């Protein structure tokens, strides 16, 4: 397990990683009735968004009804389906039918379309328990399948949901129970965000996920977990030791995911300034990453510090939940992007952020100018 340490974070120069400031012209809502945040494509096994007719792609994102306080969305999160084409984004509704998921909320994951171009496998986080009177924070990693129905007047949809299976549970040798923390922002422990990766060099399939280090006495004990497929159908998975730990530094390494470029493996995750140990040093809210010669590591921080992209100092929470695609396009969502109106607790964008492009060169990563 490779450490991400205070010494690495102390080397950050976030002015070099700062993203452009989001402006009003960038805030194009997908829907007037829902807020969206964490997003991922319906992908091929190699990680690329699956192309449909007309070069359209399908995406999933967490969504909820709009609330006066945007933080309320987390207690109502469901995975919704979207179509992206030359005309922009179209909201297609919830991905899974009512009552199918075993949780009270659906949190992030990844989705893979099979070689038959019809069978979908969704890996996702079920949080809490269906029907619970108050939200709890136990997180479980599930797999389910569905069939893609050809587009009609309502757009493409997935139907015949089936095979709902919990893939693996926390191994207490490495992973803390996900309900061990409190429910307050920044203290929730993790066992969530499964991201599928097929190694092009070996064909082996992996899931990375966000976890919490059971071996650390620190309250700031985020890590990146790993599981390995045990069969060709990707129905059986075995949990592995974590690959990166931020014990003593940071509580949440969210939505970790892998890509393969130029013979090297790159691991990326998102985190926020307020989940670093306040004793310091702390980094900005941004996209972080490491590089290795193999999935199991050892991993070395990109740019010497781990920081790849950061919100600008004048808008430190303008975006979040960055996802790097195999062509090095980076997607995210617009968070607190500007001064709130008089009747708003904060100015929450609740839509897709402008895309940016990365350049990778060994252990160096930067935004393409």
Automatic annotation (TrEMBL):
Residue positions binding substrate: 37, 108, 192-193
Gene Ontology molecular function terms on file: levansucrase activity
One GO term of the biological process aspect: carbohydrate utilization
Gene3D superfamilies in UniProt: Glycosyl hydrolase domain, family 43
Coiled coil, from the record: none
Site (Transition state stabilizer): 193
Entry superkingdom: Bacteria
InterPro entries named in the record: Glyco_hydro_68 (IPR003469), Glyco_hydro_beta-prop_sf (IPR023296)
Family: Belongs to the glycosyl hydrolase 68 family.
Name of the protein: Levansucrase
């Amino acid at each position: 397990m490779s450490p991400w340490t205070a010494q690495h974070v102390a080397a950050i120069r976030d002015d070099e990683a700062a993203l452009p400031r989001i402006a009003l012209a960038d805030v194009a809502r997908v829907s007037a009735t829902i807020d969206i945040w964490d997003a991922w494509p319906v992908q091929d096994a190699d990680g690329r968004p699956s192309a449909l007719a007309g070069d359209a792609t399908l995406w999933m994102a967490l969504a909820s009804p709009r609330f006066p306080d945007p933080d309320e969305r987390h207690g109502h999160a469901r995975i919704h389906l979207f179509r992206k084409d030359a005309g922009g984004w179209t909201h297609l509704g919830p991905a899974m039918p009512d009552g199918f998921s075993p949780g009270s909320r659906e949190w992030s994951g990844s989705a893979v379309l099979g070689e038959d171009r019809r069978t979908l496998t969704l890996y996702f986080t079920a949080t809490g328990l269906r029907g619970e009177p108050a939200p709890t924070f136990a997180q479980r990693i599930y797999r389910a399948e569905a069939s893609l129905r050809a587009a009609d007047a309502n757009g493409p949809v997935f139907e015949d949901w089936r095979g709902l299976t919990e893939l693996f549970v926390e191994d207490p040798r490495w992973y803390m129970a996900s309900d061990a923390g409190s429910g307050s922002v920044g203290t929730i422990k993790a066992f969530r965000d499964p991201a599928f990766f097929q190694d092009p060099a070996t064909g082996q399939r992996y899931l990375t996920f966000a976890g919490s280090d059971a071996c650390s006495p620190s309250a700031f004990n985020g890590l990146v977990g790993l599981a390995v497929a045990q069969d060709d159908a990707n129905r059986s998975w075995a949990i592995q030791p974590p690959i990166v730990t931020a014990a003593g530094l940071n509580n949440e390494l969210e939505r970790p995911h892998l890509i393969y470029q130029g013979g090297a493996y790159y691991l990326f995750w998102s985190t926020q300034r307020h989940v670093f140990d306040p004793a310091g040093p702390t980094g900005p809210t941004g996209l972080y990453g490491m590089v290795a010669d193999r999935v199991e590591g050892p991993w070395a921080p990109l740019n010497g510090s781990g920081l790849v992209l950061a919100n600008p100092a004048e808008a430190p929470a303008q975006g979040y939940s960055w996802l790097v695609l195999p062509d090095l396009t980076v997607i995210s969502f617009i968070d607190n992007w500007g001064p709130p109106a008089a009747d708003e607790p904060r100015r929450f964008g609740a839509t897709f952020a402008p895309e940016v492009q990365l350049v990778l060169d060994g252990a160096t990563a930067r935004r393409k100018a």
